[in-house]
C-alpha cells in the first residue's frame, strides 16, 4: 500500500475549519455505503489492462476487510464498474478527443461489457447482498455517470466511503462529486491505489482540505464501532 500520513499543518487547517481534524470519524453503518471504484481486470491485470495500476492489487485485502466490517454493522457495499459503450463516443466525446486512436481502441476492448477486462478483480469479496453499478464517466456521482446517487438515497444512505483505483482520477472525482451532492464523504487512504505515491498523496490531501475526510480502514472500522456503542 502507499505510504501516507496527513501533515500536522494540514490537519490543523482542517481542525480550524471543522472544529476537529476528522469530521466523519464516527460512522452510522445504517446510513453508510462503501463505494469501491473500478477494481477491474482492465486496471489490474497486465495482459488486459488499458491503464494498469499495479498498486491496486495490494489494496484488495484492505477493501475486503472494510466491506466485511460494514456489512456486519448493517451498512451497504457497492462495486462500481467502469464501462465503455457507444454513448461514450458522443456524450463524452472530449475524452475521446484527448486519446490516440490506439488508446481509444484499448479502452473499448478492455471496458466494454462482457469483455474480460470489464470484470471485477476475482479476489474481491463480492457478496449477493452487494450491488454492482455500471459507471460511464470518471465520477460515479456526476450526471450521466451512473445511477448510484439515486440508489443510495433510495436506501437512506447519506455517507460514502470511497475506495478503489485510481486515487487521483475516478476515486477523487467520485468523492468530490459525492460531497457536492450532499453526501458525507470519506476517502479511505489505504483502500485506494494510484500509479505513484506522489499522485496518491496529492489527491488525498487536496480532497481532505475542503471536501471531506480521509481515514484508514482501521479508523473507519473504529468509527463504526464507536457509533454502534453510542447508539446502544
UniProtKB/TrEMBL annotation:
Pfam families: Isochorismatase. InterPro entries: Isochorismatase-like_dom, Isochorismatase-like_hydrls, Isochorismatase-like_sf. CDD domains: cysteine_hydrolases. Keywords: Hydrolase. SUPFAM superfamilies: Isochorismatase-like hydrolases. This is Nicotinamidase-related amidase. Residues 32-219 form the Isochorismatase-like domain. GO terms for molecular function: hydrolase activity.
